[in-house]
Design brief:
Blueprint lengths: L13 H8 L6 E2 L11 H9 L13 H15 L9 E4 L2 H15 L5 E5 L5 H8 L3 E5 L16 H6 E7 L11 H11 L3 E4 L22 E6 H4 L8 E5 L1 H13 L6 H12 L2 H23 L12 E5 L8 H12 L1 E2 L1 E2 L10 E5 L4 H11 L4
Parallel strand pairs: 1-10, 3-4, 3-5, 5-6, 6-7
Antiparallel strand pairs: 2-8, 7-8, 9-12, 11-12
Helix pairs in contact: 1-12, 2-10, 3-10, 4-5, 4-9, 11-13
Length: 375
């Protein structure tokens, strides 16, 4: 059987992008969670002046980067001391998500199933496909936007599972999961739980959570500087948790030559040590979420603020549009704003559009002005 690569999800938005860009003032791109705000100046200085560009960087991350990550985990989640040996770097977290199933399959070749949230970032399922494994979607609990309905996982799927992916706060819904229940389920079934926590700094409903707060056994928490520190182009992430899992992932990744560039690691050390710039970014996203929720409500598409993340998960009003794609088309045509139809995140997302509030306020105000006369 020949592998047929599906279209890249966001490439499907090209026609809508052109439609939005035709308006005076051009396209306002709220389709992808690409940070548009400036990084911390000290991070840019570290990136330019580390002197580490000549030698090969350590695949696991420099001692300074691993120590900075461990210290941040302890500080942000009120954890007991995190051994540096249970932390390792990755080249941004998308690469880690996409490659994890292939690596884990080497560890347990008799298992062939990746469990992942039914409405989620597409790379969890794609990682399973790239590894030649089954991707099995797990729905959210009834009436909830986030989390996993663990009771919906069949015994046969649990027996075949390589990994259970968790994502809290959720992309795209902003919902929060029950990390304690997920870690307990994984331990009871002998299934590693990998918790994608890249939006943890933007938790609005209570303090940020990590699966590591429920113990490291059988779990890995995955973190990124892309959202937290506006460093998506620098590609710095890290994973931490169960020492045996971390060491296995680290060792295989080293053989594959997966390395964060030395200057990027130096920048990551500075970014992880500074919490003040993250609070500034939190305030920016909070303002934009509230503003755009009001804009959509006035447009006839009421939406609740998320429990976490910087996305609005907007229900498609019944009777006004046929589906999320027709709603996205009208938003592009009238508002010049590009949003993501919810089925890009799985069939269960078909009744929603996702709005990434990454654009600065003046661009979002332009969208509000354009849509203001629409009734």
């Amino acid at each position: 059987m020949i592998f047929v690569l599906p279209p890249y999800p966001y490439d499907r938005l090209s026609e809508l992008s052109a439609l939005a860009d035709a308006l005076p003032g051009g396209l306002v791109d709220c389709s992808i969670g690409t940070p548009c705000d400036p990084p911390l100046p000290a991070v840019i200085e570290a990136l330019a002046s580390s002197g580490s560009e000549r030698g090969y960087p350590l695949s696991a991350g420099s001692p300074a980067l691993r120590q900075a990550a461990a210290a941040w985990l302890e500080r942000r989640f009120d954890l007991p001391p995190v051994p540096v040996s249970s932390v390792a770097a990755c080249v941004g977290t998308k690469e880690f998500v996409a490659s994890a199933a292939q690596i884990l399959h080497l560890r347990k070749p008799e298992r062939d199933t990746v469990l992942y949230p039914a409405v989620s970032y597409p790379t969890y399922a794609m990682g399973a496909s790239l590894a030649g494994c089954r991707a099995v979607a797990v729905p959210a609990p009834p009436g909830q936007l986030g989390g996993l309905d663990l009771a919906a996982i069949s015994d046969s799927d649990a027996e075949r599972a390589l990994v259970l992916w968790s994502n809290s706060p959720s992309n795209p819904t902003g919902g929060l999961g029950d990390l304690a229940a997920e870690s307990s389920w994984g331990r009871a079934h002998g299934v590693p739980v990998f918790s994608d926590e890249c939006y943890a700094e933007f938790t609005w409903d209570g303090p940020p959570r990590s699966i590591l707060q429920h113990g490291p056994d059988g779990v890995i928490a995955v973190h990124s500087l892309s959202k937290r520190s506006n460093l998506a182009g620098v590609r710095v992430g890290f994973f931490a948790g169960d020492p045996q899992l971390v060491e296995f992932m680290r060792a295989v990744r080293q053989h594959a030559g997966l390395m964060v560039p030395g200057p990027a690691q130096a920048a990551g050390v500075v970014a992880l040590a500074d919490d003040a710039h993250v609070e500034v970014q939190r305030q920016r996203y909070r303002e934009r979420l509230d503003f755009m929720a009001t804009v959509f409500s006035k447009f006839g598409s009421p939406v609740e603020s998320p429990a976490g993340g910087f996305y609005l998960w907007v229900p498609v009003p019944q009777g006004r549009w046929d589906d999320a794609w027709s709603m996205a088309e009208e938003l592009a045509r009238l508002g010049g704003v590009l949003v993501s139809p919810g089925d890009l995140y799985g069939p269960a997302g078909a009744g929603f559009v996702r709005v990434a509030v990454v654009q600065p306020m003046d661009r979002l105000e332009l969208v509000a002005e354009r849509l203001g006369g629409v009734h």
